[in-house]
Amino acid sequence: MWINMGPQHPMTHGLWNLRVKVDGETIVDAQPEVGYLHRGIEKICEGRTYTQIIPITDRLCYGSSLTWSHLYCLTAEDLMGVEVPERAEYIRVAAIEMQRIASHLMWLAAYATDLGLMLGFLHAMRDREVFIDLLQALSGSRLTYNYPRIGGVAHDIPPNFERDSLRACAYIENRLREYEDLYEGSRVFMMRNVGVGLLKKEDAINLGVTGPPLRACGVNYDLRKEMPYSVYPEIDFQPAVHPAGDCYARYRVRMDEMYESCKIIRQAIQKMPKGKWRVVAPRNAPVGTGMGRVEDPRGEGMMYIVGDGTDKPYRMKVRSPIFVTVSAAPRMLIGYKVADVVAIMGGLDMCIGETDR
Amino acid sequence: MLKRSPVGSGLDWLLKDFFNWATRNSIYPLHFGIMCCALEMAVASAPRFDAQRFGVIYRSTPRQCDVLLVNGPVSKKLKPDLRRLYDQMPEPKWVIAMGECAISGGPFWQSYSIVPGVNQFIPVDIYIPGCPARPEALIDGFIKLQNLIKENKKGLLTGK
Questions:
Q1: What SS3 state is found at B98?
Q2: Do A129 and B113 make contact, defined as CB atoms within 8 angstroms?
Q3: pTM of the model
Q4: How many CB pairs below 8 Å do chains A and B form together?
Q5: Which of A256, A308, B2, B85 has its CA 20 to 30 A from that of B18?
Q6: What is the extent of the structural domain holding A184?
């Protein structure tokens, strides 16, 4: 029997449809169906100038919008050959890592609600506000920041930003330790996570899974280390890896990533040099192509822009991590019960905005 | 059955203020996230903004809801499903269009796959502007909806 879970279902964090074929309680087949949120962003971008595209790329992934506008700016800088001032790079790195923590806390809130822990939702949302406030002080908006620019960032950091960031890092590290005790001490949480949704290392690599789901299979692959962009080579951190490949490993990887992000924010704030935060980029891009790859909170994000000498791109291609990762859903789901679907799919941190584009 | 009998309609008339008070203080929106505003919808019921103090509790099935909160762009693929969700909700029901995308298509108004505004096919009662709308704006929208229910008003099918 086929069951439609979606497009309106509490399991789907976003707007997609998971069709599962069940034999009794056991899943024998699964088909993810996306496309309910297709907005034609790639086509819209062809009709806009390079600066006008930045707010549109913010809306690619609403969970981590700063990462995507940063990725777009990286790609456009690659195309135009713009050198970014060092201060802007450090501001960007600090902001991206704050966005990563906010995104992972959003995931934690949704995941805890899926597994029946309402307290987890309340805790994670309360702490997410700390980082949302910091990003709001930085850019002036809560969710879609429109902060990076081609050739730097929109404005310099506000007064007391360093102090507030360091305080927020210390706060969240304490809080995360508390949450770990809370979750890992909960028998219900562990029973629904350990050994559920196993994904083999080979399958994950063959299906093109990236980001936390791949690192949870024991593959140490983080673009911040493998293909460093921005100022990541000068920052000391370790990608979070867990060998198990189940839902618990994915939870563990995301929690460890938040600690690492705190470390990165501290270093970026300390190493931030004085100077300019923006250079003027040319209005027209040259004829050629530009490509950028970043480690999104959900996996590898890639953009590819073809310039034709005008102020508008000829073509813009977005590679979304979740669009690829969701194709591994049948491998993770088959053999488990219907009740495990929420845990397995929740552990992927679905973001439909970037999947459907 | 009760309402059709003279006793029932008399009782209904006597208790109409009570029913109105109960309806407006227990607004159950549908738990249906589309895009950016869905996160602000979640934040609005989180500890900082706490929309639940106004009786706003999200339900996961349209049969238990009386408010359809459309919080994102409606694509042509989603349109029939959204219409079906609206039809499945029991009367009396209200619709809130949250954010620019639901009002007019927002930043995607020129897209080939977006319906420019949810009011093209569903009557909308409350419009909450913003891209994305802030949680305070959402709470303000709920209070406006409460006033609307108090005055027994309904939205009109606008647009095309």
A1: strand
A2: no
A3: 0.89
A4: 98
A5: B85
A6: 2-350
